[in-house]
Amino acid sequence: MSLLSVRDLTVKFGSRTGPVTALNGISFDLARGERLGIVGESGAGKSITGFALMNLLSKPGYIDGGQILFEGEDVAQMSPRDVRAMRGDRMAMIFQDPMVTLNPVLTIGQQMIETLKAHRKLSTQEARQIALVKLKEVYIPSPQDRLDQYPHELSGGMRQRIIIAMALLLDPKLIIADEPTTALDVTIQADIMALLLEMCQSNQVGLILITHDLGVVSQVTERTMVMYAGRIIESGPTRSIINDPQHPYTQGLINALPQQTPPGQRLKQIPGTMPTLATMPKGCPFHTRCALVGEGCMTHVPSINQFGSSFVACHEVHRLQNEVPAEDVS
Amino acid sequence: MIAYLIKRVFQAIAVMLVISLIGFAIQGNLGDPLRELLGQSVSEQVRQQLRDELGLNDPFLVQYMRFLGNAIQGDLGTSYFFKEPALEVILKKLPATLELVFGATVIIIGLSIPLGVFTAIRPNAVFSRLILALSIVGLSIPVFLTAILMIFAFSVELGWMPSFGRGEVVHVFGYWQTNFATKDGWVHIIMPSIALSSIMLPMFIRLIRAEMIEVLQSEYVRYAQAKGIAPWRIYFVHALKNTLLPVITVGGVQIGTMVAYTILTETVFSWPGMGSMFLEAVNRVDTPLIVAYLIVVGFIFVVTNTIVDLIYGLVNPTIKLGRMGA
Amino acid sequence: MSNSVFGNQPGAPSKPSRILAIWNSNIGYSFRSNPVAVVSMAVFLLIVLAAFCAPLLAPYNPYDPAQIDIMNSEYPPFWVDGALEEFSLGTDDQGRDLLSTILYGTRLSLIIGICAVAVQTVLGVSLGLISGYVGGRTDNLLMRIADIQLSFSTLMVAIIFLAITQAMFGSEVFSRYAVIFLVAVIGVAEWPQYARTVRATVLAEKKKEYVDAAKVMGFGPLRIMMRHILPNSLSPIFVIFTVQVANAIISEASLSFLGLGMPPTQPSLGSLISSGFDYIFSGSWWITAIPGVVLVVLVLVINLLGDWMRDVLNPKLYKG
After folding, report:
1. pTM value?
2. Is ipTM over 0.90?
3. Is the Cβ–Cβ distance between C300 and B137 less than 8 Å?
4. Which chain B residue shows the shortest CA-CA distance from C283?
């Protein structure tokens, strides 16, 4: 049995003019200890997916349908009490910006101890010891002192390390990391990502890494899912997604990477912008920006089908496979 | 900690100096001390002599320094009307006002926090809507009108409550007589306390609600939820502490308004405190008493503001206060 | 957010269609769909209209001693036994027709309130613009003064100032200039609220390209501030203005109640309530109650409108 099995997850946002669909029929599986990357532009629904898995959507968002089977239980159907028991214990989350994630008026120790006490019957002393061990694990210098410090006394990188330690406090089965390095200095991004990878590997924790950075995905994850406008448009082993993208959007993303462009040349971009929830076109959501758009693309949403080692949602994927090599030659 | 304290104390002293300067300017320009001392029918020569003796012909700075020196020693002049030291007159009235303020503060703090928090976390509950509707009505009724309406309803029409004075008070120490020792005292202080809190209470409910709603939308509250923390702990530990920081600041700003409201409340209820004494002193042009009131109120204002700042420093860890000594 | 409504764009449509545009905009929609706002606005307009048409509507002139007869004092309103037909809401302690006195008094309260807030706005907006635009030492000084001013309560400062003025000049002279004193003391005290909000907008807008563009095009700072920056701070100013009118009316009433405002011969709502207070024990509750109700309703509808506006315009108000 897989650790996490998401089926047809649909998330909507209530608005004055009626509900708008933010996530549309998301399905995927995650094995124990597996690391999955979710990539896409901002607004594609990556973060919403992450919060939906935690059943932590903020209003006016809500899960409209589908299943989130986590260790056999449907998170979408759990009682608030059970959801709370799961959060932070079996499934932990790392937020984007460590500068605003920690409560400014509570010490690091208080925030770690309360998490332990929320899920285990522990004395404050015992909880403090566990917190100390976890801080050491993430290589925090003089952890004893850190416990009594307030967040504002620590740097962003240090805070994110602490947040990783907090995620590991109760030995979760799954960590959802939502852009864990985007708010940090470039110089420490790699450190944090390496730490996260090391922790997941050594503790056999599953990871869902939400990012827009394909480079990070290729280093950390085993499988990758590309999202566009609230849908999965391609998923498969990270290596094949990076080396042999099938969907024209994924290809566009890969081609836009600076490494793909010889020095001195203009970076290749995907023309246009992603449609918003309000301006969602009929048919394939990508057809407004797609170079290969065909008849069916404007009327029908493509279903997701296997091509090689990946799954792709594109009407024109056959045509694509024939044409892409030709383009490469030129 | 020490640097913070010293800075605060210096600020307080600066404000007190400004207030004393204003007080001194009033004393020099309002009324004529000679007329109060001698009456009208004295020759100009005697007047001049007395002026010299009283130092009224000295340069401004000399007079001000003398005024300041006396004030520091607790000598704020002698009330024309009571023929007693002005400070003593005020100190006799002070406990009545302080007890009234205490009563109102208990009501405000005791009710605004639970009601503000409740209306923030259950915005759609019928009770929340009721509280919010009542709070905007409360905010729209001037303090003196609330007081009058309560007297009309509970004293005149129903006859349940006394409408004026402190009732039976018990001597505690010095000039302090308390309302809180007898049933009669309690009955007398209830309506004035409610009246005094009548605008501040809805104001603080709305303020706490607004701040709480904002805090509840913050990332760290969501993160606390993601850690599986129980709701009560999120509301009362994570959110409330952050909510109270701006509320404490506003509370400090409101101290002056509270003093103004005591004048209104004491006038309506004939409460024998400093506020009603001040208005009487104004009507009698009792200059030393007016000036003394100004200085005492200014002093209370500065002290409470400093205390509020210190509390803020204790609650807010980004102001290093307690840690510096460790 | 509301720039299209308040902004001073060159292509803005002419007056009548602009009002229509507001009516059809989001603001107009949220107004129409909010019964509380509609009723509050209606009641507010009704009170304002009645107050400013007082000389036309009032059956008597309360300022004309010839029309006042002390023998007519303390008649109750029409629904109470013993009422006289010619005094529909009864009479006060001096024998004045209460309806007429209330109409004139409301007019006075409104005038003082609005004028005082106008003074606040002009003072606060200009100091805020200067503070934000000039910056540096001027900014520092002005904001420090604003801090100090905010920490003193308006009402307290007003009470002390008016009390001392009254003691100095005597109540005779004082009551002649009471309106001016009230407007001045309420007006001067609360400018920091505006100044801080405007300053914050200026600081935010100053960084934007169009301000640089205007500078490059050779427009002077005054023109840039008036035509480009000010329109962006209009919605918070509007919200503060509304709430402040309510506060100013309360302050005026409180001061008049203490005898530090309008004299009984020329009563505002506050002094009317004050003069009636002595009579509630003898049963003449209406002298206090009816002007009291008018005062509360007036302040309440303004507060409700202010609340609604705050929700709709959703300005980022500077928090003190």
Report:
1. 0.83
2. no
3. yes
4. B156
